[in-house]
Amino acid sequence: MRDSLPAVFLLGPPHSGKSVLAFSLSQALRRRKVLHYLLRAAPDGEGDWFAEGALGVVRTLRFKHRYTSSFVERVARHLRGRMVPLLVDPGGRPTPTQLERIFAQATHAILLLPQGADRSPWEELLDTYAIPLLADLTSALEGEDEVRETAPVLRGQITGLVRGARASGPVFEALVGRLETLFRQAGEGLHAWHLAQAPKGYRVLDLEARVDDLHPEDRRWRPRDLPILAQEIPSGAPLAIYGRAPNWVYGWGAQQAWPAAAALFDVRYGWLEAPSLRPGRNKMVTALEGRRGEWHHVAFRLQESLLAYRESLTLPLPSVAGARVIVEGKLPFWLLTALVRHYRAQGKAVAVYQPPLSAAVVVTSLPDAHFSLGDTLSVPSLLADLGKGDTV
To answer: Is the pLDDT of residue 305 over 90?
Structure first.
């Protein structure tokens, strides 16, 4: 099944609008309930937070990583083992190693070039790896969108691909439709198959179905949804979490299951249990800590934007003297859930920081009247203020 799943690469030079187009396409496909994942195969670690967060926060949180052999190999492995149709943003300056290991996995491509850009390097890349084109588009900041040809390749001009805006117009809608057809055909039956693979004996929380019930108009989670989930899901029982949701929803689910096990579906690996953590040094992870009023703030930064999953992991884990802790970091959800459970096991109240909110969401029920499950704490990012935190 994995071999038949598409991996559609967005190709083009830096500043062509690829990241904006990729995010806009993924959002449109989500609204249409098309199962897919946007894989950012460049080492910047720029997730949806980069497109959705306030500009000031995004600028301070952005942390450039280097292409390394281990990063390239992890991306190639995730592409080979893909479990859903992929939309892939490989960055604008592919390296020779990246080309050899990553681009060989592409099944289709969308070419996006600024007006007047040299086409020859990209045409050579497409020919070398025999990648069929879905769309061949020109990007312009101003002007009118224009569909010039629809078959066999969508050709035209798309405008207004600037950060903070969402792509729209006839070219964009035609491209969304083409991806929807491709992804639906390839992904038929995948959702049910994924749920059937959940760990036996675990209650499955299907976040895709639940957000449809709660917010069918936009399918976006709100912090106030957590008390509703808490009434539905018993605490202390094994829980398997499936679907797309903010980090604080996953943080809530992981601590709701504690001390029983928590598992989650990761499109790179499949079903994973939140790993056990032990304190110690890890050259791939840096930790910082600070104070936010009554809350102890701990933040974790990865030295590479992809971290390999381990069932047990040694991490720099700051000791928290108080009763409340904010957890922050651009982290895979399997690691975030492990951190939330680590501090929950110590009897701490936990909040999870999310850049698009510029706030932390309380994910544990508290015995006092100061904070409640689902409350938001308007606090600044600790990672954005590295000089004022203590590095561990």
So the answer is: no
